[in-house]
């Protein structure tokens, strides 16, 4: 296989567990997905479904112990699991950049924004201080900091939340990363600012020819930026699809429930009825069965079903549901029309399943 043809990132059967006093938390339990070059993939799912743990397992930001990571993570064909600590630090600083929800945590309050950017540039590029300063200014300007020259010597606290997140994005871009992993990068910001930052990410992706792995629980964000979507639930992949197919023909009852509580398909996701299963003792069969309006006996037996192709002509759209497997009838889920999301039984009920990290 030629290098250009293989995905930039290939996650295969990722399992991340935490040993706790309450037992072993199976946060990510056999997750596979890939990110192609120049593609934006969204990891979506309710709070606690394993999005952050999955994304932080890629570059091993997870502390081990208490964590333990199994599975293969190939980046440009190299298995990241086999890299030494130093090699991994290099990949993290150069090829794969992370942007988190809270920009505060990524900036040092003691140094000016300009100084921190210069450091970020020089970490990757052995250039003169003057050249690094010019590049830092360029980056600030590119991410939309107005009058970057005069803001250069300001401290992080002198920037608004949205501007701070732009600075963090500039720092992430300093290394010209091939993959940007952004974990709820706009969740802490005002709605109007959110949209601007998302637009910025989309623009930068094209300009820098990056791939983006975007973590969000907001289907409005997914619709806006994703090329492809991976729906996670309780540490398992429930559905994978191109963004158009996901909204046009949502197939897993969980995906349909998520869409069902999206007012007018564009607002924020609310919680659906019921709660996630206990991650230390997940039930047999499909993890979503207890909340699923279409569950049958087969749903509570054996393993989570594999990802079945939704239809023969579209193998890239897969759904982990018995109704799509051999002998199953997708119409049980899709109904006669085939594309009207049914929503879960008690869709829209506030159940307090949303929480903070
Ligand atoms: N260090 C840890 N020790 C024990 N359990 C953990 C640890 N980190 C995460 N978990 C558990 O792993 C599961 C997945 O958490 P994760 O943070 O990945 O969810 P998420 O999908 O990112 O949710 P959110 O939308 O709230 O950010 C949760 O049950 C969480 O409690
Ligand atoms: Ni998270």
Automatic annotation (TrEMBL):
Q: Which GO terms describe its molecular function?
A: ABC-type nickel transporter activity; ATP binding; ATP hydrolysis activity
Subunit info? The complex is composed of two ATP-binding proteins (NikD and NikE), two transmembrane proteins (NikB and NikC) and a solute-binding protein (NikA).
Q: Matching SMART domains, A to Z?
A: AAA (SM00382)
**EC number(s) in its UniProt entry?**
7.2.2.11
**What is the top-level taxon of the source organism?**
Archaea
Q: Which CDD domains match?
A: ABC_NikE_OppD_transporters (cd03257)
Enzyme type, top EC level = translocase
Q: Cite the record's Low complexity compositional bias ranges.
A: 343-357
Q: What InterPro entries does the database record attribute to this sequence? A: AAA+_ATPase, ABC_Ni/Peptide_Import, ABC_transporter-like_ATP-bd, ABC_transporter-like_CS, Oligopep_ABC_C, P-loop_NTPase
Q: What's its membrane topology? A: Peripheral membrane protein
Record field: transmembrane: none
Region of interest (Disordered), residue spans: 327-357
Q: Provide the reaction this enzyme catalyses.
A: Ni(2+)(out) + ATP + H2O = Ni(2+)(in) + ADP + phosphate + H(+)
Give the classification, highest ranks: Archaea, Methanobacteriati, Methanobacteriota, Stenosarchaea group, Halobacteria
* Domain called ABC transporter: residue spans: 9-259
Protein keywords: ATP-binding, Cell membrane, Ion transport, Membrane, Nucleotide-binding, Translocase, Transport
List the NCBIfam families hit by this protein, alphabetically: oligo_HPY
Give its localization: Cell membrane
GO CC annotations, alphabetized:
plasma membrane
The name this protein carries in UniProt is Nickel import system ATP-binding protein NikD
